[in-house]
Structure formats: structure tokens, C-alpha cells
Design goal:
By secondary structure, the protein is an alpha+beta fold. It contains 27 helices and 34 strands. Strand 13 and strand 14 form a beta hairpin. About 40% of the residues are buried. The structure holds zinc ion (2 copies). One zinc ion binds next to loops.
Length: about 850
């Protein structure tokens, strides 16, 4: 049985007790009422067809994994997107604001194992729970376009895309070393290995295993993925930099050294072929094929190489291969430099990686820092082959710059490094021992997973025909529903005979289905296209509809997706374009990555016990206060340290808005929207504040996104109104002006606190839904600040009066005074010893 938790004191309740009951702002009454009304109107947040004639706006937040519980990071992400969507609706746009579920993945299997609940059931009930939370938060999604990636009507198109890519040679299978997490009992993508450990299991060291794997040939688009980044000006520079580094393009040369006394070629990759006359060894990765040949005949060498392998493995496990202490072993064999015929010793070294470049390098200690260290350590020769232009004598080595000329390089002497690289590449091509080449850090995307809860790969193994694609008319290949999850020994589907055993589409004989499923990053690579036509049962989507909505105008999500999801979905977009389905090159015009929500300086996590539940916040303070606080507490791109006092503060503020608006609502209703006489005095002052606030918030929605200062501006506006409550009550401000002030206040509030705005809009006699009311326009003439006249005194005597904007600070006033002609003539030739400014009143100069 659960122990009852003592109720923590609620600031909301405490404050409420000090007020008269009928004046209490009660989100628990207001919010569910509007939630029901909105649910009863399916058109409320619905996207309209292109024929609406309105400009389109597609705003998208990254879809969540259905864990069963929204966390505060979600609330923040969705509050930003929802504020933007509401603002765009009010600006008259046809807005697409969808939501869905990234519903495949391992946690469903873990839960199945733990609770004996089928993954599908567990996932769908989590989705229902999170959808309830989203509805309670008042998030304005078009649920008619909802996408759930674990359902066959979605994942059949994953299979369809897989087959299209297979036809185009963009899918292939090969045996390869894979990252294996013993905890997940599955293969991980390189991107899912962080510091040698599983991305889900921080304490689990990832092992290497050999398995037949399916790959997407993302490297076929490496150049375009890289070049496209320059055009993505609406993406954060940090994301573009991360993608550039991840793609890791480097231009260089591949050169074959020949094994002395043999025919074997050792292909090395170098970015500095101009230094090749300075190569004093060739170094191989311990896993290099030639090393196996050497050690087979030499047990002593084998023992030494095994040590190197062990060191590499330990460094990989420690997560810092870059910092490995460099060790090498000479093999006693030599290789021939094809440019000058010289023999260089062949070494095996622990810092050479089998999967980078060709797994072999030439070592040039005169012009490479790392090679220099290695040569010093093992007493290898160091030869100077590059020298700064104009130097007659050798310079200190290593000399690393590419700004120099060649020496000790035979016929290439006196060439610049750049000229030499081009000539050496041409010579290699001409003589057939090498070529110019480009290498990438980006590897093809391994998509095979030995998991149950994912999209089945639509391939069949036939004893006669080999690999056979499942024909389109047999899609989807359905996941079997009843299955025993054990998470041991590879693919769970391989233990389901009804699934595995099938007939070959070619010969009709018995055959076996592929039992791996697809990486769940496949699901999220194109889900946002499906939103545009989510019910389509004959195609992934109608190209005409996608063309209307794409690219996404604003995508919002966490920066942790910068190199996984956001590269894969760019790849998928290019593939779909080349399949003729879409015309856009990139999925999203603008990308915004919000900061994290932390608590007491640390990321919220169960183990730290610092998790704040959105449900608790909504119960105590309401959805509006929770959402508004998430926007108010920090600029959206920074981390937000969650403070409950802050939520309580926002709730109190909304209470003040509610009291102010309800107090003057009868005045506003009676005044209607009739024309006001030319406002003067206090009315003019309040209208000025109103139009300044509109201008500021509008500007922020147009790109700056300082929503925290937007909320602060609304607070200031409300403060100004409350400060003159007595005058308002005494009728000193004409009723039509009061009506105008309240309308603006409610409209400005509505993207941030939609429930309260809906309630107050109705209360003050606003027509229709506040969501469809036009966003207020700022009148620059009304927004303009008044000027003040400031008397300037010199040594106590009035000299002149200067005009400054109302609210000018001391420095502005001092500058205006010193720039004044009369003042300047009085102080000419004298020293200004002191300037005393009373802002808004006077400026005194003490002159000697
Ligand atoms: Zn794991
Ligand atoms: Zn067959």
C-alpha cells in the first residue's frame, strides 16, 4: 500500500485565503471549462486546405517518446511552439500545428519484461495519458493529423521507403563490426555510443561484434548534406557546426606503398601528400589485414600486437581514444615509397583506427605533431621537407604550416605545398599508385536492430533466390502481437515461427523473413510529412499537400538532436525529393533549440530526486501559470532553473489580471468598440504604454523570441493600469479607452495564458474565439514617448532647457546638456568638475 504524502503548503491556497472568495482567480474552474469547449470544436486548431487562400505557417515541436509522463522539458518545448502557433493564427495564417508519438523503441520492451504488459498496450496507454496531459495544458494541436509511429498505417511507409531506397541502391547489407550494448542486447548506432558507453546505459561499456547489418547509404548525400548547411541560415550556428564536424569532410590523397619483397599494397590516406618525401615509416592499425599476415608467422610479434589491441580497447572503453598513450611495434618489414623508391619501416600502432580512412598512415615526423612525438619516442628519423619561403637554412621541426615550399623532395623541390599536392596527385593517378580522394567522418547509417518493438525490415531470405524484397502489395509486414519478450540472444522475431516462415515472392518456395527491425530514428526521419496527410492509405502522403506545407516554417526541439534526428531527416528529405515526392531540399526553414529545464542547478532526474511533475504544477497553479512561467523564467534558448516560487508568482500575477479585467469588464462591455474622442492626459499615457507593449511583443514573435521579456512587458502594462485604479474607478479615463486597453491586454496575453485569455475575452464582450481575433497593431504615433524639458544650470544658474525623451537616464541627459549650444559657449575654456543629474528633473554643472 502506498503511504499518503503530506500535502505541501500551497502558496496559491495561502494567497487565496487572504482574498474575498468571489474575487478569487480560480484556474481549476476556468481551465477545464474551456478545455471542454475547445474539445467540442474540432475546427478550433484544425489546419485548413490550401484553398483557404491564407498564407500558410507550419510550426512543429519535436514529437515525444510516449514514456507515459510529460516532463518539464516537454512543457517548455510545447509552450514555446503553442505561443507561436497562437500568435500566427491571430495574424491570420493558416497554421499547421500537429503532434504525434515516436512510439517504437526499447522502453516498451523493458516494460513488457518488467510488468508483463504487451509493448503495444503499454505504449498506447502511455500515449493516452500524455495526450490527456497535453489537452489539460491547453496546447492547441490539430489532433486530426496525429501520427503514431508504432501503428501499421504509419510503419508500412517506413517499409515502402526502405524498398524504394533498396531499388535505388541506397540500402545494402554487409557484415560489419557493430556496437553491441549487453544491457540493451542490441546493436547501437555510432551516435548512440557516448564515450564508449551506451547512450541509455551510462554505466555499460559497449562491445564490438560482427553481424550482417542493413545500411542506408547516407554517405551518397554527404556533400549535399554539408553544402546545404551554408544555406540553412534559420538554423542555430552551433547546430550547423555540429553537423559539419559530424560529416567531417577532408580532402586528401590515397597512395599505395608496396610491401618490400611482396606484391601487397598498403593504401594510406593523407591530407598532406606534399610531405611524402619526409615519410619515415608506415603505420598500420592493429586490426589491419596485413598485420594478421605478419603475426601469423611470428608469435612474438603477435603478443606485442595483442597488447596494442588491448590498449586500444581500454581507451575506447574509457571513452577517450584521442588521449591514448601512443605505443608502437616495429614489424621488421619494409614498404616502398612509390615517389622515390625509398624503403620505410612498417610499424603497428595503437592510435591508428581501423575504421578511419584506410586504417594505415604514412608517418611524417618533420611536419606532424603526433608523428613527431612518436618518432622522438622510438628514435625514428625526422626529415625536413617543407620550409618557409625565403629561408635558406633548416627551421625548427616540426614545422606544421602549409604555407611553405618543398625541400629534399627531388623534382618537386621549390614548389609551394598547394602546387606540390596537385602535381603529386596527378603523378599518382598517371602511374596508377594513388588518387585524389575525399574522406568523411560520416558513416553509412546502420539501421538493423535486434529488437521486437520496431518496424520489420521488408526482406525475405530464399534458399534459391537469396535476398528478395517483399512486394508492395504485401505491405505492411505486420509485427506479430503476441510475443514472449526475453531480451536475450538477438532478434525476438526470430523466435516467432509464424512470422519467420513465409513463402518466397519469386519462386513460391519456403523462405524466411528478415527478423531485424529498423532503428527508431527511421520513424522520426519523415513523420512531419505524414502530418500533412495523415490518413492517406495509398501513399505516405499526397505530394501536392506536402508541397503546400513544406518546408516547415519553424521547428522547435532540443539541441541533443542536432546530429542524429536532424541529419537523418535531412537525408530522408533529399531521398524523397529524388523519388519525386517533394520539391523542397531541406525539411525546415528555421530551427530553434530550447534550453534545458533544470532544478537546483542539475538536470531533472529520478535518481537526483529533483523531478518536478507538470501535473502537480497544473493542480496547484493551473496550466496557464505553469506554461507562462516556463516562458518567463529564462530566455527560451537558455537553461531554466525551475523555482516553484516563480510559478506561484506568475499565478499571483494572473490573479491580478483577472481581478482588473473582471472589475472593468462591465465598462468595457458597455463601451463596445465605439470610437473614442481624442484621448488626453492619463488616457493618452495608458494608450502609449499599450502600444509600446504591442510593438515589443510583436517584434519578439517575429524572430527575437525573448518571451521572458514579453511576459515582463505584459506585467509592466498591468502594473501601470493597477497604479491608476482609483482614477479608472473615478471615470477619469473614457470608457472606450478602458475597453481598448483591456482588449489589447487580453489579446497580448492569449499566446502565453490561453485559458485566462479565453475567459476574459468573453467577459469583456470580445467577439468569437480570442484565437481568431486579429493580433493588435501598434500605432507608432501613439507609442512614441513624450519628451521632457530639463533645465540645465551652471554653478546654480539656469542657462537653458534641453529636451530629452521621457524616461531618459542620467547619461543621456548629461550628453544632451553638454551638446547644447548655449551650455557649450558658457563652459568654453573652463573645466567641468562635476555633473549632477536628477533624471526627469534637472541637470547641474559645476564649472571651474
Ligand atoms: Zn544500452
Ligand atoms: Zn525463392
Amino acid at each position: 500500500m502506498k503511504r499518503a504524502r503530506p500535502m505541501p503548503p500551497s502558496p496559491f491556497t495561502l494567497e487565496a485565503m487572504t482574498e474575498e472568495k468571489e474575487q478569487r482567480y480560480d484556474p481549476a474552474a476556468i481551465e477545464p471549462k474551456w478545455q471542454q469547449r475547445w474539445a467540442a470544436d474540432p475546427k478550433m486548431y484544425a489546419a485548413e486546405p490550401a484553398s483557404s487562400g491564407k498564407p500558410k505557417y507550419y510550426v512543429l515541436e519535436m514529437l515525444p517518446y510516449p514514456s507515459g509522463q510529460l516532463h518539464m522539458g516537454h512543457v517548455r518545448n510545447y509552450s514555446i511552439g503553442d505561443a507561436l502557433a497562437r500568435h500566427m493564427w491571430m495574424r491570420g495564417y493558416n497554421v499547421l500545428h500537429p503532434m504525434g508519438w515516436d512510439a517504437f523503441g526499447l522502453p516498451a520492451e523493458n516494460a513488457a519484461l518488467k510488468n508483463n504488459t504487451p509493448p503495444r498496450e503499454w505504449t498506447l496507454s502511455n500515449i493516452a495519458a500524455m495526450k490527456r496531459q497535453m489537452l489539460r495544458l491547453g496546447l492547441g494541436y490539430d489532433w486530426a493529423t496525429e501520427v503514431t509511429t508504432c501503428l501499421p498505417d504509419y510503419y508500412r511507409w517506413n517499409q515502402w521507403f526502405f524498398l524504394r531506397m533498396y531499388e535505388k541502391g541506397l540500402v545494402y547489407r554487409k557484415k560489419s563490426k557493430v556496437n553491441w550494448c549487453p544491457e540493451c542486447a542490441t546493436v547501437l548506432a555510432n551516435e548512440q555510443v557516448i564515450d564508449g558507453r551506451c547512450w541509455r546505459h551510462e554505466d555499460t561499456i559497449v562491445e564490438q561484434r560482427d553481424l550482417e547489418q542493413w545500411f542506408f547509404r547516407i554517405t551518397a548525400y554527404a556533400d549535399e548534406l554539408l553544402a546545404g548547411l551554408d544555406k540553412l541560415e534559420g538554423w542555430p550556428e552551433k547546430v550547423r557546426t555540429m553537423q559539419r564536424n559530424w560529416i567531417g569532410r577532408s580532402e586528401g590523397t590515397e597512395v599505395d606503398f608496396t610491401l618490400e619483397g611482396g606484391a601487397e599494397k598498403i593504401r594510406v590516406f593523407t591530407t598532406r601528400v606534399d610531405t611524402i618525401f619526409g615519410a619515415t615509416s608506415v603505420q598500420l592499425a592493429p586490426q589491419h589485414a596485413l598485420v594478421a599476415a605478419f603475426t601469423a608467422a611470428d608469435p612474438a610479434l603477435k603478443a606485442l600486437v595483442d597488447e596494442l589491441l588491448d590498449q586500444q580497447k581500454k581507451a575506447r572503453e574509457a571513452g577517450d581514444l584521442g588521449a591514448i598513450e601512443k605505443h608502437g611495434v616495429p614489424t621488421g618489414r619494409y614498404a616502398i615509397n612509390p615517389y622515390n623508391g625509398e624503403l620505410v619501416p612498417i610499424w603497428v600502432a595503437n592510435y591508428i583506427l581501423a575504421d578511419y580512412g584506410t586504417g594505415a598512415i604514412m608517418s611524417v615526423p618533420g611536419h606532424d605533431e603526433r608523428d613527431f612525438e612518436f618518432a622522438k619516442k622510438y628514435n625514428l628519423p625526422i626529415i625536413e621537407v617543407i620550409r618557409p619561403a625565403g629561408e635558406d637554412t633548416p627551421v625548427a621541426l616540426p614545422f606544421l604550416s602549409e604555407d611553405g615550399i618543398l625541400v629534399n623532395s627531388g623534382e618537386y623541390d621549390a614548389l609551394t605545398c598547394t602546387e606540390a599536392q596537385a602535381q603529386l596527385q596527378r603523378a599518382a593517378t598517371r602511374q596508377g599508385f594513388g588518387e585524389a580522394t575525399v574522406t568523411y567522418r560520416l558513416k553509412d547509417w546502420g539501421v538493423s536492430r535486434q529488437r521486437y518493438w520496431g518496424t520489420p525490415i521488408p526482406m525475405i531470405n530464399c534458399p534459391h533466390d537469396g535476398l528478395v524484397a517483399v512486394p508492395d502489395d504485401q505491405l505492411p509486414v505486420l509485427l506479430p502481437e503476441q510475443i514472449q519478450i526475453t531480451q536475450q540472444g538477438g532478434s525476438p522475431l526470430s523466435r516467432v515461427p509464424e512470422f519467420v516462415n513465409t513463402t518466397c515472392p519469386k519462386c513460391g518456395g519456403p523462405a524466411r523473413r528478415e527478423t531485424d527491425t529498423m532503428d527508431t530514428f527511421v520513424d522520426s526521419s519523415w513523420y512531419f510529412y505524414r502530418y500533412t496527410d495523415a490518413k492517406n492509405s495509398t501513399a505516405p502522403f499526397d505530394p501536392k499537400i506536402a508541397q503546400y506545407w513544406f518546408p516547415i516554417d519553424q521547428y522547435i526541439g532540443g539541441v541533443e538532436h542536432a546530429i542524429l534526428h536532424l541529419i537523418y531527416s535531412r537525408y530522408w528529405t533529399k531521398v524523397m525529393r529524388d523519388l519525386g515526392l517533394i520539391v523542397n531540399d531541406e525539411p525546415a526553414r528555421r530551427l530553434f533549440t530550447q534550453g534545458m529545464v533544470i532544478k537546483d542547478g542539475a538536470k531533472m532526474s529520478k535518481s537526483k530526486g529533483n523531478v518536478v511533475s507538470p501535473d502537480d504544477m497544473v493542480v496547484r497553479y493551473g496550466a496557464d501559470a505553469t506554461r507562462m512561467y516556463a516562458l518567463f523564467a529564462a530566455p527560451p534558448d537558455r537553461d531554466l532553473d525551475w523555482q516553484e516560487d516563480g510559478v506561484a508568482g506568475v499565478s499571483r500575477f494572473l490573479g491580478r489580471v483577472w481581478r482588473l479585467a473582471t472589475k472593468y469588464a462591465p465598462v468595457a462591455r458597455q463601451a463596445g468598440s465605439g470610437p473614442a474622442a481624442a484621448p488626453t492626459g492619463l488616457a493618452l499615457k495608458l494608450l502609449r504604454k499599450q502600444h509600446q507593449t504591442i510593438a515589443k511583443i510583436t517584434l519578439d514573435f517575429e524572430g527575437r523570441w525573448h518571451f521572458n521579456t514579453c511576459v515582463a512587458a505584459i506585467m509592466e502594462f498591468v502594473n501601470d493600469l493597477q497604479a491608476v485604479d482609483a482614477q479608472l474607478a473615478a471615470g477619469e479615463v473614457p470608457a472606450p479607452v478602458i475597453a481598448e486597453l483591456l482588449r489589447s491586454l487580453v489579446l497580448l496575453l492569449s499566446p502565453f495564458a490561453p485559458y485566462l485569455a479565453a475567459e476574459l475575452w468573453e467577459d469583456i464582450g470580445g467577439e468569437g474565439a480570442v484565437l481568431r481575433a486579429p493580433w493588435p497593431k501598434s500605432d507608432p504615433a501613439l507609442a512614441k514617448e513624450d519628451e521632457l524639458e530639463i533645465p540645465v544650470q551652471i554653478n546654480g544658474k539656469l542657462v537653458n532647457v534641453v529636451r530629452v525623451p521621457a524616461g531618459a537616464d542620467a547619461k543621456t541627459i548629461e550628453e544632451a546638456a553638454l551638446a547644447d549650444g548655449k551650455v557649450q559657449s558658457r563652459i568654453a575654456g573652463k573645466t567641468v568638475a562635476k555633473v549632477i543629474v536628477v533624471p526627469g528633473r534637472t541637470c547641474n554643472l559645476v564649472v571651474k
